[in-house]
Every structure is written in structure tokens, then in C-alpha cells.
């Protein structure tokens, strides 16, 4: 009897909680006011500008215009990159989600697998203006191949090799066209007496590291997943690609060992902007940081991140930000209108400059820089020299396991250890086992 | 004890209401139920924030809660013991990682607890005899405990940077190193982690032992000095035995806190966390949130819970038996 009442109490409380949780899934539009016609969308934006406040300043007038045009209000929250993935994860798990959200496009296939997002099928795609308005490679990042994507491209980004023009001229060097030239140039520009290094790399950032693991392996024509979505991390091309990138610090010694502690791309970009290093490989949104740190637009040039002579000309992954709609939204039509608005030509032009992004629309011109050569270089990289990251559900695990393995290997090199091809292979084997165990 | 209160609560609320309506002559009935009524909010809160999440966590460890199912938990298939098998298969990458992390955590906890206790004891004893400025020094020692953990650890992160950090600068000025030591990556990461955790923790040991010392009667020491016992002898034969009950609890609490410390590695290393500083709670967090595999993460948490329960149980059993003998 006593036990039964105990059990009943626990069960009742547990049910109360789960019911409350379900109830929480229904969004109540407290800000919507009394009138039935009012609609308010909640929109989570990622950090694209120089700060969260800057994002808010840039987006607010754009969203106001949308409200004027359609009568739909937008409740904006800008979320930093360190929190965005966890916030999305929590939103999926709890059902307490915004209506529209920005995602890193490399997460698209992984997020699609959760089944929490609205697929852009024929109707939905039609409602936002049809798939033909997007650059095909950009749209391909929206989800797994052969499925209706659950996200559409919003801002395009690509890696480029930034170089300091004055340093190159002083050393009588031309911007590199191959990996070998890049390494030779970097060695000439590494001057310990002046505390100047050839390159800066964000060697402590697992997200940056994994991008270079991908790009360098792609230059070797190596894949990270087979057709069935099974990881193939330990192929020779993968191992050699990773080792080539590690060797910038280990064998070629063109990067300061301190870079092993650089846990985000901003730190390496700052070294470049403050003229401590001659080159940095970064996505085109580095422009705003470089200028903010005092370097003028004409002082640096950009060339594609070079592949070794004779290798595949892959200079970047198809980087960028996509836009997704949560499936449980109560305002599906309004959300689709909003996606259409954010991806139309006018809005894209308005946002392209402050967010330093490449256009994701066909026939659109890049507006992020006034430097015509730089704009042409990045457009060329984005349109012809970029390969999408693996579009498989386990992509997120690939990022964390391989990226963290590279962090550790850079740390080993920086603290005086040696990393051989066998070590790389062993580390990638561990990463592969972790991915296999998780799926 | 807690079981008794729980089983009484659900029945408690209703009869209590009825009886109040009947008037003052039934006060004894109210008095009988009042304690339970007063306890009810606490029991409910305990259920909500402790028991239920724990039960849910245990349930999660038996289902395949990967990213394919987090949007709809009820659809997640049963995993049986599979999550535990993966976590405990030490020939496999996941199990091997967990084992290594466990090893790091054991070393970290033992060293941190030992250092904190020694420092806390030394400071408490040194500050026991009254002298000018004692109050100020005591307050000063409590600063790490009063600082918000985040601010303190973040400051350590700045100080431990390789090129710009104060630690390397000072070591270099004193000609103790070339000032180019990495503190936050590689094998030094464990040293840094222990240093920061000890800095954060030792004041608690100090505070507790200081309070304990106040209850030892001064005439014991006087008698001992008359008998010719020196400071060390006094400490060993009077202070230590008198503080025994305090120490028993203190060491256990310190151990449980350090073993499940999450803030220190999380704030100190951020996402660039080195293998040498891979503490077990942080490891479990990564296993759950980075790979979106909450089932395995939950299984690891349950294993951690079981381990800590065994250690605590054994500790209480052994020390309890000794106390009874003494």
C-alpha cells in the first residue's frame, strides 16, 4: 500500500512534467497581441558581422522592411557560434524551437537527419522562389544528395590565401600558384629576427583544422565517406593530406608553434592584419576583421589556396550559412515568405557588404569588397574550385573527431614531438572508430 | 529516512485539509500531518530536480538516443545493454577514450585533494594563534572562494598563455625557463589543471579546518606543552585526532567535487581541450553533445554514478568501522 502510493506519486509527477514539456512545445505568441491576424516569427541569426550587436544593427532595418511589406513581425535573436549548435540541439530535443534559424551549411545533412526541419519539397521550394534561383553547388549543401533539402543557402563563403603585398614585393616574390611555391615563399618570409612568420594557422581550432583536412585530402582525390555513408578516414590520400597541412608547422616550420593554441580563426587573421605574418588562409569574411585591425584594402591580395603541382584544384569547401525552417512551426507560410525575402536579390545585395558574403544567387555580383580582383578571385573559387563537405548524417562527428585529432597532433608538434604518417593514420583510425560507434 | 517522508507526502495533503475545517478540537490531527505538509514542497522539489532527471538519465542509457531520434524521443529504439557495452569495450576507440579519461581524472582528483588538504591544514594551523593582522590574512585567503569561478579560471587562462601569459613571463624573469613553455596544450595541461583546481578548492579546506580547530579546547595544548610536547607532536597527537570527524567529511566532499569537476576544464580549455586535461565529466559532455549520441553519454554518466557510489560507500564503511573501534 505504502509502496503503491509512492509509485503513484512519482508516476503522477513524472507525467505532469512530461505533459508540461509537451505543452511547452506549442509556442504561444505572447508578443502577437490580441488580434487574430497578427503573426510573429522567431528568427535565430548567426554571428556574421563584427559582433552580435553589429549583426543586430545590420539586420534590424532589413527585418523592419519585411514587416512593412508583409505585416509579419520578426523577433530576432543573434546567437554566437560557440552556442549556436547547442541551442539548435536543445531546440530540437525540447520542441521549444524558433520558426527560422541560421545554420552552418556543413551541419545541414546532420540536422536533416534529426527530422526536425521542414523539407523544401516542390511546394515549399516554389513558395520561396524556386530552386533555380540558387547557385547549384550552394543549394547542394542544403541536405543529403537525392533528398529534398532542409535548408537553403543564405550567405556564401570560400577560403582564400591572403598575402601581404608589401612583404612579397620586398622579398621579390610572386603570389604562389602551387603548394610547393607557397611553402618556399613562406620559408623566405619567415624571419625569426623580425619575429615574422610566413603563415598563421588556427591550429587549435578543430573546426578550422577539419576544413583543411578535408581540402588537402580532396586535393589528393581522397574521400572521407564511401557511398553508403561509412567513414573511410585512413586512406593514403587522407593521411598524406592531413600530414601535408601539419608539416607547415612541423617540417616546413613556417608557422609559429604558438599557433597550436589559436582556437579560432580570428586569432590568425589578427596576426595577418597586424603584419606579424605574410600569409593567412581564411574565408572571405576575414575582410572586415582585417580592415578593422588597421590594414587597408589595397595592402593585401588574395589567390586561391594552392594545391600541389599536378593535384586536384580544390581550394575550398563550399562554405557558408544556410537558412532552415523548423517543422513544428505554427507559421509555415509566414516562415516561407521570410525565407523568400531573405534570399531575394535585393536583400542579398543589402547584406552582402556588411557580412562580407558571396552571393548564393545565380548571376548576382559579389558586393563584399570594392577590390574587383579580390571579388573575381573569390567568385571563381566559390563557383569552380570548391567541393562540398561530405553530405552525410555523420558529418558533424567527422568534424569533431578528425578536427580534435588534428588539434592534438599540432599540440604534439608544438611541444617538440614528431608526428609521422603512421601517427596520423593511427589518429584517423581512432576518429573513424568513434564515428562508426556513434552511428 | 527520505523514503519515509516521500511515501507519506502524497497522502498527507488531502486529509490535512479536511481536518482543518473541522475546527480547533482536532488540532492533534493537524499536528500529526503538519510536518509532512511542510516537507511536501521540499520533497516535490527534490523529485523534480534530482530524482526524476536521474531516472530519465538511467532510462536514456538504455535507448538508442542519437540525432535520428532526439526530435522524437519516444521513437528511439531500445539499445538494451549496448550503450554500456560500447562504453566498456576498452579495445574500441570509445571505451579506450573513456578509460584514459578515467585514469586522468583519478590522478587529477588524488593530487588535487591531497594538495588542497595539505595547504588548507597548513594555513589553518598557522593562523590559529592570535597575532596582529590575522583577520586580514584569513580574509585574503578566502578570495579564491569568493570569486566567481568563471572569472577566476578565465584569469588563469590568460596567465597561462604561452606568448603573452604572466606565468611564462615571471618564470623567464627568474631565469627558471626560457619563457616558451606551453601550459594549456600537451602534457603540461594536467599540471595547469591541478594548479587551478587546487587554487579554487584549498580555501574550502582551509575554512572547514579553521572552523574545526576552534572547537579544540585550548587546555589540551597547554597540558601538552607542560608535558614537553613540541609543535609537531601536538599537531599529531591533539590536532589531528580532534579534527578526525571534520576530516572524514572534508576529504570525501573534496574528492566528490574534484572527480566531477566540469567548470575548470570547460573554462580553462574551451573547445581546444588537450588529452592530458580530459576529465571524465567533460569527456562525457563531449561524447553526448559533440557527437549527438546521448544514449552512450547517459550510459557513461550512470557508470560514473555507480563508481562514485561504490567509492563513497566503501569510504564510509571503512571509516565508520574504524571510528567505532576507536
TrEMBL record, chain A:
* Protein name in the entry: Carbohydrate ABC transporter substrate-binding protein (CUT1 family)
Q: Which domain of life is it from?
A: Bacteria
Q: Which UniProt keywords apply?
A: Signal
The record's InterPro entries line, in alphabetical order, gives: Bact_solute-bd_prot1, SBP
PROSITE patterns in the cross-refs: PROKAR_LIPOPROTEIN
Residue ranges spanning the membrane: these are none
Q: Where in the sequence is the signal peptide annotated? A: 1-20
TrEMBL record, chain B:
Q: Where is this protein found?
A: Cell membrane
For this UniProt entry, which segments traverse the membrane?
Answer: 36-60, 102-127, 139-160, 180-202, 242-260, 298-318
Give yes or no: UniProt keyword Zinc: no
Any one Gene Ontology cellular component term annotated for this protein: plasma membrane
Predominant location: membrane
Indicate the segments forming the ABC transmembrane type-1 domain, all copies.
Answer: 102-315
Name of the protein described by the UniProt record: Carbohydrate ABC transporter membrane protein 1 (CUT1 family)
Amino acid at each position: 500500500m505504502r509502496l503503491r502510493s509512492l509509485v503513484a506519486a512519482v508516476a503522477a509527477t513524472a507525467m505532469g512534467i512530461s505533459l508540461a514539456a509537451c505543452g511547452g512545445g506549442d509556442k504561444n505568441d505572447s508578443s502577437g497581441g490580441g488580434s487574430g491576424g497578427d503573426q510573429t516569427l522567431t528568427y535565430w541569426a548567426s554571428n556574421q558581422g563584427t559582433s552580435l550587436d553589429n549583426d543586430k544593427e545590420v539586420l534590424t532595418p532589413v527585418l523592419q522592411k519585411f514587416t512593412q511589406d508583409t505585416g509579419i513581425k520578426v523577433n530576432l535573436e543573434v546567437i554566437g557560434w560557440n552556442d549556436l549548435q547547442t541551442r539548435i540541439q536543445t531546440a530540437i530535443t525540447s520542441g521549444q524551437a524558433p520558426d527560422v534559424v541560421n545554420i552552418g551549411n556543413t551541419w545541414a545533412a546532420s540536422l536533416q537527419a534529426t527530422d526536425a526541419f521542414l523539407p523544401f519539397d516542390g511546394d515549399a521550394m516554389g513558395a520561396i522562389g524556386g530552386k533555380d534561383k540558387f547557385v547549384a553547388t550552394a543549394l547542394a549543401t542544403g541536405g543529403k544528395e537525392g533528398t529534398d533539402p532542409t535548408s537553403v543557402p543564405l550567405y556564401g563563403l570560400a577560403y582564400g590565401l591572403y598575402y601581404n603585398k608589401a612583404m612579397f614585393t620586398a622579398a621579390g616574390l610572386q603570389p604562389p600558384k602551387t603548394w610547393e611555391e607557397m611553402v618556399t615563399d613562406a620559408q623566405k618570409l619567415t624571419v625569426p629576427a623580425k619575429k615574422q612568420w610566413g603563415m598563421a594557422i588556427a591550429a587549435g581550432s578543430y573546426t578550422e583544422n577539419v576544413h583543411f583536412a578535408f581540402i588537402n585530402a580532396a586535393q589528393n582525390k581522397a574521400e572521407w565517406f564511401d557511398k553508403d555513408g561509412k567513414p573511410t578516414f585512413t586512406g593514403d590520400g587522407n593521411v598524406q593530406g592531413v600530414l601535408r597541412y601539419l608539416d607547415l608547422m612541423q617540417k616546413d616550420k613556417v608557422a609559429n608553434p604558438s599557433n597550436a593554441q589559436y582556437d579560432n580563426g580570428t586569432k590568425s587573421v589578427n596576426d595577418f592584419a597586424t603584419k606579424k605574418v605574410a600569409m593567412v588562409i581564411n574565408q572571405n569574411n576575414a575582410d572586415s576583421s582585417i580592415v578593422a585591425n588597421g590594414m587597408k584594402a589595397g595592402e593585401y591580395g588574395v589567390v586561391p589556396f594552392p594545391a600541389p603541382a599536378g593535384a586536384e584544384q580544390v581550394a575550398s569547401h563550399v562554405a557558408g550559412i544556410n537558412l532552415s525552417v523548423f517543422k513544428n512551426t505554427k507559421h509555415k507560410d509566414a516562415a516561407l515568405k521570410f525565407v523568400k525575402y531573405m534570399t531575394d536579390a535585393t536583400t542579398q545585395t543589402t547584406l552582402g557588404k556588411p557580412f562580407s558574403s558571396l552571393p548564393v544567387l545565380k548571376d548576382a555580383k559579389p558586393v563584399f569588397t570594392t577590390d574587383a580582383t579580390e571579388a573575381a578571385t573569390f567568385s571563381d573559387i566559390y563557383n569552380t574550385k570548391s567541393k562540398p563537405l561530405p553530405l552525410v548524417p555523420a558529418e558533424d562527428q567527422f568534424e569533431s573527431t578528425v578536427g580534435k585529432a588534428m588539434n592534438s597532433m599540432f599540440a604534439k608538434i608544438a611541444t617538440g614531438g614528431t608526428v609521422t604518417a603512421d601517427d596520423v593514420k593511427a589518429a584517423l583510425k581512432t576518429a573513424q572508430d568513434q564515428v562508426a560507434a556513434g552511428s | 529516512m527520505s523514503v519515509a517522508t516521500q511515501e507519506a507526502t502524497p497522502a498527507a495533503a488531502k486529509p490535512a485539509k479536511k481536518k482543518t475545517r473541522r475546527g480547533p478540537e482536532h488540532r492533534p490531527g493537524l499536528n500529526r500531518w503538519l510536518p509532512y505538509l511542510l516537507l511536501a514542497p521540499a520533497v516535490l522539489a527534490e523529485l523534480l530536480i534530482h530524482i526524476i532527471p536521474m531516472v530519465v538519465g538511467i532510462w536514456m542509457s538504455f535507448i538508442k538516443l542519437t540525432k535520428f531520434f532526439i526530435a522524437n524521443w519516444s521513437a528511439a529504439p531500445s539499445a538494451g545493454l549496448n550503450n554500456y557495452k560500447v562504453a566498456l569495450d576498452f579495445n574500441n576507440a570509445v571505451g579506450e577514450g573513456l578509460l584514459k579519461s578515467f585514469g586522468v581524472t583519478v590522478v587529477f582528483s588524488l593530487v588535487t585533494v591531497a594538495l588542497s588538504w595539505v595547504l588548507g591544514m597548513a594555513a589553518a594551523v598557522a593562523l590559529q594563534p592570535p597575532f596582529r593582522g590575522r583577520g586580514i590574512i584569513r580574509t585574503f585567503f578566502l578570495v579564491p572562494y569568493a570569486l566567481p569561478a568563471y572569472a577566476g579560471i578565465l584569469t588563469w587562462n590568460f596567465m597561462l598563455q604561452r606568448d603573452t601569459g604572466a606565468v611564462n613571463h615571471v618564470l623567464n624573469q627568474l631565469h627558471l625557463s626560457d619563457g616558451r613553455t606551453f601550459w594549456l596544450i600537451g602534457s603540461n595541461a594536467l599540471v595547469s589543471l591541478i594548479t587551478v583546481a587546487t587554487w579554487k578548492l584549498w580555501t574550502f579546506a582551509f575554512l572547514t579546518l579553521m572552523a574545526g580547530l576552534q572547537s579544540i579546547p585550548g587546555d589540551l595544548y597547554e597540558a601538552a606543552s607542560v608535558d614537553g610536547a613540541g609543535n609537531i607532536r601536538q599537531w599529531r597527537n591533539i590536532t589531528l585526532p580532534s579534527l578526525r570527524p571534520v576530516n572524514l567529511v572534508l576529504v570525501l566532499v573534496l574528492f566528490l567535487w574534484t572527480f566531477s569537476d566540469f567548470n575548470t576544464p570547460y573554462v580553462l580549455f574551451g573547445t581546444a581541450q588537450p588529452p592530458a586535461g580530459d576529465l571524465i565529466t567533460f569527456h562525457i559532455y563531449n561524447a553526448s553533445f559533440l557527437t549527438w549520441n546521448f544514449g552512450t553519454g547517459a550510459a557513461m554518466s550512470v557508470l560514473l554514478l555507480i563508481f562514485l557510489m561504490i567509492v563513497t560507500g566503501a569510504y564510509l564503511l571503512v571509516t565508520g568501522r574504524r571510528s567505532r573501534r576507536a
